[in-house]
Amino acid sequence: MRRLIVVLVAILTAGATAGGVAGQRVPRIGVLVPGSPEREQGLEDFREGMRSLGWTDQSNVSIEARFANGDPALLSANAAEFAAAKVDVIVAFATLATQAAHQATSTITIVTSAGDPYYGLVASLARPGGNLTGLSVMWPDLVAKQLEMLKEAVPSVGKVGILLQPGHAPHAQLMTELERAAPTLGVGVLPVAVGTGRDLPHSFDEMSEAGVDAYFVLNEPRTDAMRDDIAAIALRRRLPGAAQQRQYVDAGVLLSYGVNFSALHRRLAVYVDKILKGAKPADLPVEQPTKFELVVNLNTAKALGLTVPPSILARADEVIE
């Protein structure tokens, strides 16, 4: 009996410390990822950021990820699971994950990289209040510049199809910003619903019928899962395009302009580190990025018969060729 008790105590101690120092509770970090494991580099970037600050998974911290594979319902379920498990911090990638986490808990700290933290989730950038803080991707501030980059890269563009997810509130806001900027840039913009992969050819048909000569993709987990297909169909139909994330350019879209997401996800670790050391999320200002990257795919330009202006190439942080 004594031997059995010793074994049980050892098992319970191991579970409580999760590989950490005996007697010390290892903090648990739940990471909400809207996409799929094979398409998500952000998780490893975050882990790398944690390691650089002295936090090693399964040693002195436990980092548990849940993937939603582009399914908002599964994202909400994953957030509820973390809330029920009472993890120490929830890290949420992107706006949908942030909203899901916010709905799931008002007490667990949420550290996020959201498109715009003003979707009713924080009081202000300087003093977010509540249980949520993190990094802003600044999509509403950047979309006009992203459209401008597309126009500069392909000066002949007169009408741009905006590929978006219908019913997604952030996209409605971004569309408003694009409609405001379009006349100044001398282009027209047409909102085009993406929906699911089965709808993609119809979306491109709609753009063709409307006389669209370029497209701009608004990122969102369900759309991100289709980026390879979007790039392939566009290339077949000889349509140049722009996107908000460089992964689209890797897939074959002409260009992207926006934040460096690898750096962004590593930066999330700084917030988590502060929280684990006792900081309150209400007192940590939401941080806005100061560096943006322009990525151009010259292979796509050549396939489309386009010559990218020197002004774009000179400013590009990376040129794929």
Q: How many strands appear in the DSSP assignment?
A: 12
Strand content: 15-25%
Structural class: alpha/beta
Q: Could you estimate the helical fraction of the residues in percent? A: 40-55%
Detail the poorly predicted runs.
Answer: 1-19
The CA-CA distance between the termini, in Å, is 70 Å
The CATH homologous superfamily of the largest domain corresponds to Response regulator
CATH architecture of the largest domain: 3-Layer(aba) Sandwich
Shape: elongated
Q: What topology, given as strand order, has the largest sheet? A: 7-6-8-9-10-11-12
Would you state the CATH class of the largest domain?
Alpha Beta
Report the order of strands and helices. Answer: HEHEHEHEEHEHEHEHHEHEHEHHE
Overall pLDDT level: 89
Total DSSP helices: 13
According to CATH, the fold-level topology of the largest domain is Rossmann fold
Largest sheet: 7 strands, mixed
How many discrete domains? 2
Evaluate the radius of gyration.
Answer: 22 Å
What's a concise summary of this model?
The chain folds into 2 domains: 2-137 and 260-290, 3-Layer(aba) Sandwich (Rossmann fold), CATH 3.40.50; 139-259 and 293-320, Rossmann fold (3-Layer(aba) Sandwich), CATH 3.40.50.2300. Helices cover 44% and strands 19% of the residues.
Question: What distinguishing features does this structure have?
Answer:
disordered N terminus; Rossmann fold; 2 domains; 321 residues; alpha/beta; 5-stranded parallel sheet; 19% strand
Write the layout of secondary structure elements.
Blueprint: H1 2-17, E1 28-33, H2 42-52, E2 62-67, H3 72-85, E3 89-93, H4 94-104, E4 109-114, E5 132-136, H5 139-153, E6 159-164, H6 169-185, E7 188-193, H7 200-209, E8 214-217, H8 221-224, H9 227-236, E9 241-243, H10 246-251, E10 255-259, H11 261-276, E11 292-297, H12 298-303, H13 310-315, E12 318-320
Parallel strand pairs: 1-2, 1-3, 3-4, 4-5, 6-7, 6-8, 8-9, 9-10, 11-12
Antiparallel strand pairs: 10-11
